[in-house]
Amino acid sequence: MTDHMQSVSLLNKVEPLGFGKELTMKPNIGYIKEEMKRRKWTGNQLAMKMGISRMEVSRLLRGKRVGGKKCIGGLIKAFPDADLNDLFFLE
Questions:
Q1: Domain extents for the chain?
Q2: pLDDT, tens digit, for every residue of 44-80?
Q3: Which CATH class is domain 24-90?
């Protein structure tokens, strides 16, 4: 299974927990910031790799933006070798 297929499969596995609640994928901001530091990436570089605006990356890193297909897909695109369990939390 390719990484893309695995990520799409994971997105499709968000199931109701009861009482109408669903799991939510939230980016692991600490891990993302550590990876940016390790790779010496700026927010602008991350935005380019994710295919989103610098403002969206800023919101993401401040915890103002969580999930969303574009954000999730962008993080997987920017960090293709990262384990999804490191990139995201399920809540």
A1: 24-90
A2: 999 999 999 999 999 999 988 776 888 999 999 999 9
A3: mainly alpha
